[in-house]
Every structure is written in C-alpha cells, then in structure tokens.
Amino acid sequence: MSTEGAKRQPKYQRIADELRDAIQSGQYQPGDRLPGENDLMASHGVARMTARQALGVLQSEGIAESRKGAGVFVRSFRPLRRQGIKRLAQSQWGEGRSIWAVDTEDRTLVVDQVSVTEQGAPERVARVLGVEQGDPVCVRSRRFVLDDKPVLIATSYLPASLVAGSAITQEDTGPGGIYARLAELGSKPVHFREEIRSRMPSTDEAEQLKLSTGTPVMLICRTAFADEGRAVEVNEMTLDSASYILEYAFDA
What we know:
Number of helices: 10
Order of helices and strands: HHHHEEEHHEHEEHHEHEEE
Helix content: 25-40%
Strand order of the largest sheet: 4-5-6-9-8-7
CATH topology of the largest domain: Chorismate lyase
Strand content: 25-35%
CATH architecture of the largest domain: 3-Layer(aba) Sandwich
Low-confidence stretches: none
Number of strands: 10
C-alpha cells in the first residue's frame, strides 16, 4: 500500500497493521503479551478508543485473544484444517475411522459434552428430512474440544423411526460414527451437501466456544442423503472461525 493510501486508513487500522506485521515477523511469539491500550496511547498518540479498536481488529481476525485482567496476547492455538471433501469419503467412515481424524492429524479431538434426546422436528429440519413438523427425531448435540479449546458445537437430527434401537441413539455411536451405523441400517449416505454462512455468535454460542470478543462464528449445515435422494441426517454446526481453515480440494 502506498504511503498516501496508508494515511487514508483509520488510525486504529494502521496500528493493527503494524502489530500484525510484528507478529508475522516473529517480534511477538505465540503466547506473548501485546502492547496494551495505555502503551499504544503513549506510543501512537491516540485516544483509548482507537487503541482498543486496534487490538479488537487482531482479536476479530483470530490473531490475538483477550485474557481477563491480563491483557491481549498472541493466539497460540494452531488452526484446525477442515478438509471438507476428504473427511466425508466412504473410505474414511466406512472403514471405521472417525471423519475428524482427517482434520486433526496428530492432535486429539475430544467430545466433552454429548446429549442424545428424542424431540419434535423443527420446521426447518422437517422440511429437509421429508417428515412432518413435530414428528419425532433423534437429536444428537455435541461439543468438540481441541488442545483444551472448544472449537465446535454440533447438533444432528435423524428420523427417529429410522434410527430407533440403534447405536445412533447412544452417546457412543461406535467405529465410523453415525454414517457407518446408517449404512448398517440400510441407509448408507451416498451424497452430502454443506451450506456455509458466517455471523456474530449468540451469547450462548460465545460462552460455549469461549470466544474472544469480536470473533465471528461459521455455520455449516450438512445434509446426508441415502439412495434416491432421501435425506437421513441434518447436522447444524457452529465453528469458532478463528480455530478453522476450510479446505476444499477437488479435481477440475
């Protein structure tokens, strides 16, 4: 960017750019404390709000995180590379492996909260599954934690009539997870569709994912289809956007 262009930037953005460059050059390492609001006010001659906005930019980008009473630090968490196509291949779950193993490599992803209930299908879910609103569905809610950091909350909806009595209604679905069990029930997934959006988190989402102020979430809604285009699962996922890189690799 030209000097003239940089001058047209808001002051807080110029400060954020300087701090980002310092992080990327190694001047500040993961876990290091960044200059605080008072430091930035003194070094750049700006108001407190400007200094706060500059630090907020880095937090919203996932580069830094605020620690209550301690300051703002360079984020030390290594983002999870979510391989959107490879992870859903039948060669993965069909052989008893977790779809998450594709993403985590040598790291351990832990499900620290699991809830399995039967509820009436919400209208949006009923429409996709081809059932009536209020019809019973199996609802599986989970929270996933990586390196002691919550990264994802997910809720799956499956027709109760399809999965009744199977391991899908248990907390532990067994090797290969839900999709391997659906295959055993004669409803093997043969096609997936994912829709991705982003927004700011709700209060509950921010609390569950322990998000830094200003960090948005990504919403991924995945539908699994069996033969003849029959939807057998709707999975609504909320991801900490700063914890993920979404990767899609496919042939032309």
